[in-house]
């Protein structure tokens, strides 16, 4: 009998501003793209727009889907069997509010990095690949 493989979906936004890309430091002390999980009944593009507004205080629009990647985080409570990470290139339309200082995963830190520096960051390889791909669009 078929048993479905159920995993969470996380949407991430790649937002460039003045030659830099906005990143978030996570609880594993790694840099990652800002974003989060889809709420029930929400479309993925709606979720990434909502997450970028909540985390960065940015009003954005989705330009294109850049990458999907099945990522396993062994130490995670809900992602130890994998999480489907969907990364979107998003256009910054307006800065609406400030950064989220404390999110669902604890204290939050956001920073803009020059794209040329991303390769040297403590960050999963697939995020680096997505940022590089998006920077060429």
Number of domains: 1
The biggest beta sheet is recorded as: 7 strands, mixed
CATH topology: Nucleoside Triphosphate Pyrophosphohydrolase
- Superfamily (CATH H level) name: Nucleoside Triphosphate Pyrophosphohydrolase
Count of distinct strands:
9
Strand content: 35-45%
Uncertain segments = none
CATH architecture: Alpha-Beta Complex
How many helices? The count is: 2
- End-to-end span in angstroms? 44 Å
Elements, N to C (H/E): EEEEHEEEEEH
Judged by helices, strands and strand pairing, the structural class is alpha+beta
Mass-distribution shape? globular
Assembly form of the protein: single chain
Mean pLDDT across the residues is 91
Task: Tell me what you see in this structure.
By secondary structure, this protein is α+β, with helices and mostly antiparallel strands. It has one domain (9-129): Nucleoside Triphosphate Pyrophosphohydrolase (Alpha-Beta Complex), CATH 3.90.79.10. It is built from 2 helices and 9 strands. A hairpin with a 2-residue loop joins strand 7 and strand 8. It starts with 8 loop residues before the first strand and ends with a helix. The model has no long low-confidence stretch (mean pLDDT 91).
